[in-house]
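Record 1 of the preview.
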Amino acid sequence: MHAATDQLPNTELTPRRILPGRSPRPTPRIVTTASLTSHVHTLAGPPGSSGPVFVLLHGIGMSHRYYRRLQALLARHGDTHAIDLPGFGGTPTPDRQLSVADYAHHTAATLEKMGASRVVLIGHSMGTQFATELAVQRPDLVSHVVLLGPVVDPERRTVRQQTLTLGLDGLKESPMGNAIMFADYVRSGLRWYLTELPVMMTYALETRLALVHQPVLIIRGSRDPVAPRNWCEKLAATAPNGRFLEIPGKPHIVQHGGAAGTAASILGLASN
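->
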């Protein structure tokens, strides 16, 4: 199947003062399954809302914090849960390396404990791997899949290449975006980052995505050096029901700098 390439939709969503100091504060919850612990940060949707439930999964070294703008926008339409996965965002560090499948299994168990199902699953960077694997493992829990800045492009599957592109992206991110990234990297620590880096580098996203039959939306910022356009278009074509969308002028953390356009695109997917 050929993937469709979407244009950024018209939207009434605007970033109306969605800043870290002023945006709604999520309610935190600690969820432990087996020996692994996540912190779930929830913003409830409108009272009585029957809208979709949105679940946000961060990338390597990161946390829920770089989703704050997007989460505030999505919460106008339904419940949202941004999950700090084991080893990241101040959660306890596991005593062993976790595979992408381990993270997916833990996330599924976390959603079940929370009573969430048929969610719109959103992943960024390495979080796109977790989201894809969860959609394959537990299609009953996932209605739609959104992959923001997916990794890893097979043509750049070395640590050196990824380090270079990440450094280049840092030159394009806003000062606030860089501050969030740096603080989260420090909090997760170099040891756990290096423990999970080989896991990210070896996961064959393109192979697993071919098994995802839910509607899939691939989103990248047009200035993202980590997730090149041709790679994202190939991924959208690989998914049985995939679409691709590019948000102009935004780098890798597209959900931060391009929150309004990203939210509008996700809502458009969820409404179909």
